[in-house]
Amino acid sequence: MSGERLDKWLWAARFFRTRTQAATACDGGKVDVNEQAAKPARAVRPGDLLHITQRHGRRIVRIRELSERRGSGAMAALLYEDLTPPPPPREERPAPVMYRAPGAGRPTKRERRQLERITRR
Length: 121
Description:
By secondary structure, this protein is an alpha+beta fold. It has four helices and seven strands.
């Protein structure tokens, strides 16, 4: 069973800034390999399908090549094929909800501008 460690590949493909972050994401159930939860030491091979949950959403990628070394962003983009569906058009996305803690006082200038931006939609 040849392959490369999942956490090392995620780091080399620039999905995470450090290998420790990649391992933590795997341990936390944020990375699935072929629709199964994966540990950081799991061996991955070209053709495997990854589901990666990150702060800005869920990404679906297929591994093209393996690499143990972290290179430039252009080199990292060659390691995988992005199968993530495009986000919905802006009109269909739900508007962000503004939250203010009770008793927080008057909104600041920045918060007021954010509220105006939201209510104009």
